[in-house]
Amino acid sequence: MKRFFILTSITLFSLISSPLFAQQTDFVKDYLERLENSKKYLILVAENMPSDKYNFKATPESKSFAENLMHIGWAMDWHSQSLLGGREPRDWKNDTELRPSNKSKEEMIAKIDETFDKTIKLITEFDVAELDDELDYFGLKRTKRQILLLLADHITHHRGQMLVYLRLNGFVPPRYVDYQ
Which residues contact 62 (CB under 8 A, 6 or more apart)? Predict the structure, then answer.
């Protein structure tokens, strides 16, 4: 009887947990596809702005085109490597790797490409069982899944500003890439 109960429990647990695990894995797979497309599109946007316009700001208090680009990289690094990966966060005031200062357009694009690759690698190796783990996010409790969604929104937000900057300078942005 005890053996029957144990086998029944294991079977029921497998029936319940297997679809849940598949959903977690599907989420990460879908997220990675979206992130790869987001990377390609952001790099196209960055390539379309001439280097002499990288310091353009829509208003004096706005970030420049270059600052928006590198801010995406900094936030991606923080969300993925620090929040999800557990690495100590960069000190924004002293960090030079993800700031536009003294970098050419090509160096900034290369740094963004590298930062996306590091983020994609971390998420590829991410333990999907941790997606529901909660973290402190500016005083709010957010799951690691929510952190990934917030990161995608953040990239889109700043890339959208960069698209407007292209238009304000008379350039046609690259055609929108689906699913990113």
Answer: 161
CB within 8 Å of 94: residues ≥ 6 apart? none
- Tokens found for residue 29: 């797979």
Q: Which of 93, 86, 83, 91 is nearest to 138 (CA)?
A: 83
Domain 28-168 sits in CATH at 1.20.120.450
Give the Cα separation of 58 and 173 in Å (integer). 16
| Summary mean pLDDT of the chain | 89
Phi, psi of 118 (to 5 degrees): -65, -40
What is the value of pTM for the model shown? 0.84
Please check the confidence at residue 21 and state whether its pLDDT lies above 70.
no
The full set of domain ranges for the chain reads 28-168
Q: How many CB atoms lie within 10 A of CB 58?
A: 13
Q: Tell whether the model's pLDDT for residue 7 goes beyond 70.
A: no
DSSP string, the chain: -HHHHHHHHHHHHHHHHHHHHHHHHHHHHHHHHHHHHHHHHHHHHHHHS-GGGTT--SSTTSPPHHHHHHHHHHHHHIIIIIIIT-PPPP-TTT--TTS-TT--HHHHHHHHHHHHHHHHHHHHT--GGGTT-EEEETTEEEEHHHHHHHHHHHHHHHHHHHHHHHHHTT-PPPPPPS--
